[in-house]
Design a protein that fits this description.
Length: 331
C-alpha cells in the first residue's frame, strides 16, 4: 500500500514538474501582456481662416471619407476681399497698358528729337564753315548754334523721359512685378475664400465634436478630431524580462476586449528604446537612497494586418480600447 502511494507521489511529482517546465518554456516562447491598447493617428481639424460657422455637415462619431465637406464659415467678407483683389488686378493691368503706351510715346519722341538734332547739327556745321569765311553774320551763326544746343537738350530730355517710362513699366509680360503682386493678392483672396469650406483630410471617425452653427471659429485652433482609419496598431507594454528574445517582424496575436470573439494578427513593428517610467512627467530618482526594484515595462508597437474583421464597420476598432497581445518569438 505504501509502495503504491510512494510511486503515485513520484509519478505525480514528475508529471507536475514536466508540466511546469513545459508551461514556462511555452510562456518564454509566447510572451503575453494585457497592458495593451489600440492606437491610431488622430488628426486635429482646424480652419485656416477665422469666421462664424454657417453650416455643419457632420455630427459627432460619424464616419467621413477623405475630402468630404465638414463645415462652412460665413464667406461674405472673403467674397468682398476677392472682389477687391480682382478689381486691383484689373487696375494693375490697365496701368501696365498705360505705362506701355507711355514708353511707346517716349520712343517716338526720342526718334523725333533725333531727327531734329541731325538737321540742327548739319545747319550748325554749315554755319560754322560759312562763319570761318565771314560769309554770314555773327547773329546768324549764334542762331544756328542755339538751335543745335536746343535740339541736343531736347534729345537728352526725351531719352530721360524714355528711361523713366521704361523704369515705371518694369518687366514686360507676366513677370511684371506690379501685375505679379496684384495677381498674388488675388490668389491669396481666392484661397482664403476656399478655406471657408473645411474638408476632411483623411477618412475616419469624427470625435470630440462640439462645434455649432453661429459659433466663432479662430484660425488654426482645433475644433474637433478625426480618428484616421488608414492605419491601426497596438501599443503593448511588455515586462523587460519578456524582451530578451523579442525582435521586429515576429508574428503576434491580438484579442480585443471590446470584441471577445475577434482575433487579429499582426507583427512586431518596433521595440521602445526606453521604459515608460523614463519618459513620465516625474521620472523616478533612483539615486536618492529610497530605491525599490520594480520590473519595468517597455512599449512594443504591434502593426495590425487589415483583414475582414479589422475592416468590419459593424464593429470598428476604437482608439484606446484594451487588448491582449501574444508575441510568437523565434525559438
Amino acid at each position: 500500500m505504501r509502495s503504491k502511494r510512494f510511486w503515485f507521489t513520484v509519478v505525480f511529482s514528475c508529471l507536475t514538474g514536466i508540466g511546469i517546465a513545459v508551461f514556462f518554456d511555452y510562456r518564454d516562447a509566447h510572451p503575453i501582456t494585457e497592458d495593451a491598447y489600440v492606437k491610431a493617428h488622430i488628426v486635429s481639424i482646424a480652419s485656416r481662416v477665422s469666421g462664424p460657422v454657417l453650416l455643419m455637415h457632420v455630427s459627432d462619431n460619424e464616419y467621413v471619407k477623405e475630402g468630404q465637406l465638414l463645415f462652412e464659415l460665413e464667406p461674405s467678407s472673403f467674397e468682398t476681399d476677392t472682389d477687391e483683389a480682382l478689381a486691383n488686378y484689373r487696375i494693375a493691368l490697365q496701368k501696365n497698358a498705360a505705362r506701355k503706351a507711355m514708353v511707346e510715346s517716349a520712343k517716338s519722341y526720342v526718334q523725333e528729337n533725333t531727327v531734329v538734332l541731325t538737321r540742327a547739327k548739319r545747319t550748325f556745321e554749315r554755319a560754322t564753315t560759312l562763319a570761318e569765311s565771314e560769309l554770314i553774320s555773327e547773329s546768324e551763326f549764334d542762331l544756328a548754334a542755339a538751335e543745335h544746343a536746343r535740339a541736343l537738350a531736347s534729345l537728352r530730355s526725351a531719352k530721360a523721359d524714355l528711361l523713366r517710362a521704361e523704369s515705371e513699366l518694369g518687366v514686360l509680360g507676366e513677370n511684371n512685378p506690379i501685375i505679379k503682386a496684384a495677381e498674388a493678392r488675388l490668389k491669396s483672396a481666392k484661397l482664403e475664400l476656399n478655406f471657408t469650406k473645411v474638408h476632411a483630410p483623411v477618412s475616419g471617425w469624427v470625435t470630440n465634436l462640439s462645434l455649432r452653427i453661429g459659433e466663432m471659429v479662430i484660425a488654426e485652433r482645433a475644433q474637433f478630431s478625426i480618428v484616421d482609419d488608414a492605419a491601426w496598431w497596438v501599443e503593448a507594454n511588455f515586462k523587460e524580462v519578456d524582451l530578451k528574445r523579442m525582435r521586429p517582424n515576429q508574428l503576434a496575436s491580438i484579442r480585443i476586449d471590446m470584441y471577445p470573439d475577434l482575433r487579429l494578427s499582426g507583427k512586431v513593428s518596433s521595440l521602445g528604446a526606453g521604459s515608460g517610467a523614463v519618459f513620465s512627467l516625474l521620472p523616478p530618482e533612483n539615486a536618492t537612497g529610497n530605491w525599490v526594484k520594480i520590473t519595468q515595462r517597455f512599449p512594443v508597437t504591434i502593426s495590425l494586418d487589415r483583414n475582414e474583421d479589422g475592416e468590419d464597420f459593424a464593429r470598428p476598432l476604437r482608439v484606446g480600447s484594451s487588448a491582449v497581445v501574444t508575441v510568437h518569438v523565434d525559438p
